[in-house]
Each structure stands twice: as structure tokens, then as C-alpha cells.
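Worked example 3 (structure in, sequence out).
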């Protein structure tokens, strides 16, 4: 140690430093290095900073002092898990820049603060991070700048009902067990939090790609699938899982959580884990606007139907028309049925829309009969959504519409899809049987894309299979499609059903289908969907 310089502090030689219980040292800058000149035993005991670590601090201090910024210069330092506040003061009257450094041990304060913060960020029931703790962890993950993470939000189904029936003590027990099981499905590097009453959040590291998040979601569902045994109850708990992926564009943890929650809402409906699509929020907003506009359009009868001819593939004669909904809104924007029908289905608007379409189509056919001075020779096919079959009294509605128009049921075809059969096949079978007594023809639409099994098909009173467009497009160059179409045709022959191929865009495809044994077809090769007048003219010209 060097001789004490003529500083008022240090005139009493080294011993003076020892009188002070806090760690102290004097440092000079020599040849660009911080050199500890003197230190007391407290400094040595605490094994505080070594010279290389001191230099940047001293430099910072000297420069801030040069700029006249701070007089009482302080910085934090953590050594061997103890926390110090470091205060520096310039030693005056020295040839080389020198300063006195004092370290104040703040470990106890910092630890108390940490404990408090931890407590505030912890859910007392499960001991997991709570919403605020989860946000902190997420924030740190975002700050690291890598996109290799995903957030899963998990919401338990029917939890409030459990709580109400079993009491909150059992509810608490259930939550703790659920948390334990979810944790068991995670890896060490993942973070589980309880972000709300019955809502959990998971932060995952997904170095191996997004599929990893789906795998974890599956493991969580499996972990919850075994019934829970709590007091004398056995409970089955299912959950909805929404996933949001790390994405450089999203920097606010709250946004990430909200995105995963949007996906979670969707998961409630689909019963699958769903991931957030960047535009899902916008889409939800758009769909809501569309729903409002569509409701007005239905009320104001601003929808209309177009009619696509269905032709006999052997003779080219028109056997009927499929009625398809069209909607142009008040701003003159044309909406595709592929977009607005799903919105109508989701909102329930499909019920009034479907009733209107049925009535309109039958009325139009009756008008064609009047113009033809007798039966015009065509049928009309109307699409029925599965939602209508579930919610509306279809047989009664159909009976009334037919009675009002005076048309026999044989002139009306109803197109249903395979998905209509899933929810309650027995009920649908009864409805279809009732419809058959009215003489109505039933067609299975989009055949081959759904899930219905052949056994149920056989039991239902179905007259026509419509081969979905996906098998018809590109038929001539795809052997697999030919094989599928052959199989469907074989099946329909065995069951005594007619077949309509959809989406025939080239005459050669129609010819090939006819050669394979398909009886009818529709598609741009014959005609696009037409206005009622054009459709009638097409019918007269073709069947003359
Ligand atoms: P869909 O029942 O399968 O109707 C056939 C769709 O294929 C129609 O689309 C039609 O315009 C289109 N199409 C016909 N020929 C061709 C072709 O050669 N090539 C191609 N690429 N497409 C062809 P659209 O009119 O856009 O209707 C889409 C879907 O919306 C319909 O599919 C149907 O599921 C639904 N939809 C339309 N109107 C109604 C309705 O009044 N009620 C219900 N429930 N659904 C409807
Ligand atoms: Ca259809
Ligand atoms: Ca179809």
C-alpha cells in the first residue's frame, strides 16, 4: 500500500480507514488502469471488486464528474450474491485522478425488496407466478430478442360450475392438482403461471420449431384427461388452449397474452388447441361488421339467388338448377358466399337466410312454370346448412313453402353436407325421413370431403351424391382423383343413388365423368350461376 497522501481524509494513515466499518478503498488511475492504493479490512473481507472491474466504474465516475452531472456518484454492485451500493468521491489535490470508494452493504434491503416483489408476483394458492409474474417472465423473454418461444393460455372448461357445486375448498384443491399435472407435462425450461381464476399461462422455449408447442398442448390435454379424484368426487376436466408464437413485431407481453386468449376462445369452439393468426383480431372485427351488415341485408331482403344449371352428362339437357346466395352490400361491395355463409352460420343468421333462400328458390321455380305454361321441366336445389338442420323446424318450413307455391315436393332438392350428420345422426335421419314423405329429393353435397362413414350413408334416405369439386378439378391428369371418383361412383351405384359432379370446368372432364358412369354435372363448362331470367332462358334454349 502506498503512503497516505495529503488528503484530509487520509492523513491519519491506514489506521484511519479501519475506524470505518464499511468497506473503503482509494483508487488512482495510472497508465489507464485503476490501481487500488489503500483499502481497509472490511474491503478485503468482502473481497469486493478487483482492479479490472473497478476501472470502468471509475472511468464512468470521472467522466460524469467532468460533465458536472453528479456530485454524489453512486452505482450498484453485486459480489458473491451480496448487494452493495458504491459511492465515490474525488480525492482532491492529486497529480493523477484518484477517488475514494465506499461500499454500503444493502443485501438485506435488496433481499426484502426481492421477496416482496416475488410475493407480489406469486399466486398464493399454487405458488406459481401470477399474472404479473408471468408478464415479467414474458417481458424478459421478449427482451432477449429471440423468437423461439410460445405462450399457451389454458382455460379450464366448466370450472365455475365445479366451484359452485363442490364449494371453493374443493375448487382450490382441483386447481392445485391441475397445476401439478400441467407442470408435469412441461419441461424444466418452461414456465407455468396461474394467470387468473381458472386460467393458466405457459411460456415455452421452442428451439425445435412451432410443432413443439402443439406437442406440449397435446401433453397438457393428456395430463388432464385422467379424471380427478377429489374428496368423494370424480371430476373430468377439459380445457381450451390458445397459442401465440414469438414474433419480433409484438413487444408488449400483454399483447402476447391477449393474442393467446383470442386463440383460446377459438379453441373453446373447435375443441382443439388453436394458434393465434396474426390477423385473427382484425378478422374477428371484420366478421362482426359483416354480421351486422348481413343482418340488415336479410331484413331488407337485399340478398338474391343465382341459379347454376345441372346437366345430364349424356344428353346435355338441363335437369335442374342449384340456387346459390349472392350478397352485394349497401356500399356496393360484393361478398363471396364462401365468406358470408360461415359468418351467418356462426351468428345463427343462417336460419333466416336459409328460410328466405328456400322460399325464394321455390317461388322462382313456380314462376318459371307459369312462364312455361306448365311444368318447366327443371328442379331446384337449395343448400341446407347443418345449423339449420339443428335449429330450425326444416320439415315444417319445407311443407309450408311447397304448399304456398303449389309445387310438388319432387321439384325440390335439398343439399346437405356430411358434417350435418356428426352431431346427432339419429335426429337428422328422422328429419330426412320426414322430408322424404313430402317427396323432396335429398343430395349429399361436397361428398368425399367430410367424415361420414359409409354405414350411416346407407341408412339415410339419400338420393344423390354430389362429388366434390376437389376431385373433379384436374381429374384428367391425376390418377388418384380418377380412383376416388370411380370409388364414389361404384358406391352410389351400389346404393342406388344418382351422382352429380361439381366444378366441371372443361367439357372433356364432363365427357370422362360420363364415361365413368356419372349421371349429372354442373360447372363453368356448362354455365356459371345465372340470374333467374338468364337461367330460364338457358333452360328453354338447352331443352328446346
Ligand atoms: P356449394 O354448395 O358446393 O356450391 C357450389 C359452388 O361451386 C358455388 O360457389 C359455385 O358457384 C361454384 N362452382 C360451380 N361451378 C364451378 C366451376 O366450374 N368451377 C369453380 N371453381 N367453381 C364452381 P359459390 O356460389 O361461391 O358458393 C359457395 C358455397 O356457399 C356453396 O358451395 C355453399 O356451400 C354455400 N352457399 C351458397 N349459397 C348458399 C345458401 O343459400 N345456403 C347455404 N346454406 N349455403 C350456401
Ligand atoms: Ca351445394
Ligand atoms: Ca358442393
Amino acid at each position: 500500500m502506498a503512503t497516505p497522501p495529503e488528503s484530509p481524509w487520509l492523513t491519519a494513515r491506514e489506521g484511519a480507514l479501519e475506524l470505518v466499518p464499511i468497506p473503503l478503498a482509494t483508487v488512482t488511475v495510472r497508465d489507464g488502469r485503476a490501481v487500488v492504493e489503500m483499502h481497509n479490512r472490511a474491503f478485503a473481507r468482502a473481497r469486493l471488486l478487483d482492479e479490472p472491474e473497478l476501472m470502468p466504474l471509475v472511468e464512468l465516475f470521472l467522466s460524469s464528474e467532468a460533465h458536472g452531472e453528479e456530485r454524489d456518484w453512486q452505482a450498484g454492485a453485486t459480489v458473491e450474491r451480496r448487494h452493495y451500493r458504491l459511492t465515490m468521491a474525488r480525492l482532491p489535490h492529486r497529480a493523477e485522478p484518484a477517488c475514494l470508494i465506499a461500499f454500503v452493504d444493502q443485501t438485506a434491503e435488496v433481499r426484502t425488496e426481492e421477496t416482496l416483489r416475488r410475493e407480489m408476483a406469486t399466486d398464493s394458492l399454487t405458488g406459481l407466478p401470477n399474472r404479473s409474474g408471468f408478464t415479467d417472465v414474458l417481458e424478459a423473454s421478449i427482451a432477449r430478442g429471440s423468437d423461439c418461444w410460445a405462450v399457451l393460455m389454458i382455460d379450464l372448461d366448466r370450472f365455475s360450475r365445479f366451484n359452485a357445486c363442490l364449494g371453493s375448498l374443493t375448487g382450490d384443491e382441483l386447481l392445485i392438482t391441475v397445476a401439478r399435472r400441467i407442470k408435469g407435462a412441461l419441461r424444466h425450461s418452461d414456465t407455468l403461471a396461474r394467470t387468473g381464476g381458472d386460467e393458466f399461462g405457459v411460456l415455452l422455449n421452442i428451439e425445435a420449431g412451432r410443432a413443439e408447442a402443439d406437442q406440449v398442448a397435446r401433453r397438457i390435454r393428456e395430463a388432464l384427461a385422467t379424471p380427478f379424484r377429489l374428496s368423494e368426487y370424480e371430476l373430468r376436466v377439459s380445457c381450451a388452449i390458445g397459442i401465440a408464437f414469438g414474433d419480433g413485431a409484438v413487444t408488449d407481453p400483454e399483447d402476447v397474452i391477449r393474442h393467446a386468449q383470442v386463440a383460446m376462445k377459438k379453441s373453446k369452439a373447435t375443441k382443439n388447441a388453436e394458434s393465434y393468426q396474426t390477423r385473427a383480431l382484425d378478422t374477428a372485427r371484420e366478421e362482426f361488421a359483416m354480421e351486422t351488415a348481413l343482418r340488415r341485408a336479410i331484413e331488407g331482403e337485399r340478398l338474391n339467388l343465382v341459379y347454376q344449371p345441372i346437366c345430364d352428362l349424356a344428353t346435355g339437357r338441363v335437369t335442374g338448377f342449384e340456387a346459390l346466395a349472392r350478397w352485394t352490400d349497401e356500399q356496393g361491395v360484393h361478398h363471396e358466399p364462401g365468406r358470408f355463409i360461415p359468418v351467418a352460420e356462426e351468428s345463427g343468421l343462417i336460419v333466416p337466410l336459409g328460410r328466405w333462400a328456400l322460399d325464394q328458390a321455390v317461388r322462382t321455380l313456380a314462376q318459371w312454370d307459369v312462364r312455361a305454361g306448365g311444368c318447366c321441366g327443371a328442379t331446384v336445389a337449395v343448400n341446407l346448412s347443418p345449423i339449420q338442420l339443428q335449429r330450425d323446424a326444416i320439415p315444417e318450413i319445407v311443407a309450408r313453402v311447397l304448399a304456398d307455391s303449389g309445387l310438388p315436393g319432387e321439384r325440390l332438392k335439398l343439399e346437405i353436407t356430411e358434417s350435418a350428420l356428426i352431431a346427432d345422426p339419429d335426429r337428422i335421419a328422422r328429419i330426412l325421413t320426414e322430408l322424404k314423405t313430402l317427396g323432396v329429393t335429398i343430395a349429399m353435397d361436397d361428398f368425399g370431403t367430410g367424415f361420414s362413414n359409409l354405414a350411416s350413408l346407407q341408412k339415410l334416405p339419400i338420393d344423390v351424391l354430389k362429388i366434390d369439386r376437389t376431385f373433379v378439378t384436374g381429374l384428367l391428369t391425376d390418377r388418384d382423383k380418377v380412383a376416388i371418383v370411380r370409388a364414389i361412383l361404384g358406391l352410389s351405384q351400389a346404393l342406388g343413388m344418382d351422382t352429380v359432379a361439381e366444378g366441371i370446368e372443361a367439357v372433356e372432364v364432363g365427357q370422362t365423368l360420363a364415361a365413368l358412369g356419372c349421371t349429372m354435372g354442373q360447372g363453368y363448362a356448362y354455365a356459371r350461376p345465372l340470374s333467374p331470367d338468364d337461367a330460364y332462358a338457358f333452360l328453354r334454349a338447352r331443352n328446346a
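Notes: Residues 1-13 have pLDDT under 50 and may be disordered. The two ends are 118 Å apart (CA to CA).
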